User: Fold these one by one.
Assistant:
Number 1:
Amino acid sequence: MNYPGVSIITINWNGLEDTIECLESLKKITYPDYKVVVVDNGSEGDDVRLLREKFGDYIHIIENDRNYGFAEGANIGMRYALANLDPDYFLLLNNDTVVDPDFLGELIEVALTDKKIGILGPKIYYYHEPEKIWFAGGNINYWLGRLWHRGIGRIDSRHFDDIADVDFISGCCMLISRDMLSSVGLLDSAFFFGTEDYDISIRAARSEFRVLYVPEAKIWHKIGRSTGRTGRRPTPFVVYYVVRNHFILMEKHWSKLQFATSTLWFIVTRLFILYPAYDRQWSTLKCYGLGLLDYLRRKW
């Protein structure tokens, strides 16, 4: 078999222990033709030196001068791979994951069945509850502005075991074809953190590329490690970017009427459902306002 080359790109930002565990799991994968690019996004410690010492030539490491966010950090990694590694596919992988040894081979096997497959993603489980699904493909309701993970919170009982065309793949683990990237472009760095995965999935689909969920490919994710989230309550950092980026996404891809109905639904669910259920903190309401204000500033 002629194996396509894959550049695996992961971003480290003050997450040395997670990155090491992720890279150790990658060293066990069975797919033969891949290179690993680690983008250090301005970590405060000695992460770059320690990663070089531990992994040597196994990784290509890029040392950024500051935190460019997930989207631009991934773009920096992909540009490096294009210039130096000549891959056929790019795999964006969160550093707070561990992977099944066969996951990449399963993704590539499906990718090769159709040249119009642009993005693929695996079944993702909770790291600390390894039989519970976090992501089995994503769906979008444009009239309500709802974006949700299929199967989230369910014990894996074989209900999501079919390959499926979906509306989006999580940026936690996303295999992107070079042809698709050449056609639709890199991640939108305006998002900085989060939502860029929805955006590129929508752009791919509207450029007539398929977006596929591949259940036989499996990884495990430590939810919220990079943002400091504990339990059900989101951090102010997450709340701010969820609000800001949600409106940027809707402005890019929703019709005017869909934007109006989705905005109403967003306000109702955040203020009267999610806020009372998960938080009840003034800091959360403040971040709702700051996120919305930042979005509005972009328009003024």
Number 2:
Amino acid sequence: MDFSIAALLAQDGLTNGAIYCLLALALVLVFAVTRVIFVPQGEFVAFTVLTLAAFEQNKLPGTVWLLLALGVTAAVAEVLTYRSDVRRMLRAMAGSALPSMVAAALVWGVHAMQAGFVLQVLATVLAVTAMGPAVYRLAFQPVATAPVLTLLIVSVAVHFVLTGLGLLFFGAEGARTSAFTNETFSIGGINISGQSLLVYAFTAVLVVAMGLFFKYTLFGKALRATAANRTGARLVGVSPNFAGSLSITLAAAIGAMSGLLIGPITTVYYDSGFLVGLKGFVGAIVGGLASYPIAAAGAIFVGLIESFSSFWASAYKEVIVFTLILPILLWRSLTTHHHEEE
């Protein structure tokens, strides 16, 4: 291996690692607020790519039917829960079912108008983000106070359900989206694609924006309070259900942004999200599902290991990446004090 090959592998690893970084941050956010290991995080990535690819092919994205299914089911759940209180029922529907319905209408309208690429991207991001409230309402809100193991089982079940719905509404064909830029830049004799630079810049901007959101906005402070002490946050007026719904909605938005970045780089299928999300999970585990900076660094490390492993042992690169989790878990098991869950 010479310097030029190592530079290309490092570039590829940093590009993938930046995307894994976003997913790792989303996983840490959801776990901190809800105690849910959010297994279906990768599905939002896959749905974004498949939705935008359908737009580019002048097809009606299957996201419309997925959103309608989620919205109608969430509305039925609210009716059954608040049938004796119409005002609370309507308020609950506005938070869980309405976003999916509005997003479905938006996707339908953008397709009918044959809108340009920018509107297609915006509609795709909003559509995938709108899945978050319905997913939380249907899957996690009813068991919000359950033990972590129960929440993990529910999370795995949601992953399989969304994967099945992805096959039903999108089909088994893979898709790839158009690159945002085809420019190539030479830095120090190394050619770097504009798409890779866009991934780095977008990841950095999104990480900084998340930091500012949690530090300066009321919603961000509410999420931090819930993550620090759920009971204390409830006592000062922060609804745990609202915090949980907002955290998964943000995770869906981060997944949508990651999908925009990964779509031009690799072909994505309805079930591709699991592997992508799992690599983000390895990075999150490095941070103990608690530290955002360490999780981000761990995710970039995962991307670099994957890239160099593909050069030395391409047939075993996935095995090498996922084997990283074993020494990390062993080290954390030996250094972390365990407490029985109340």
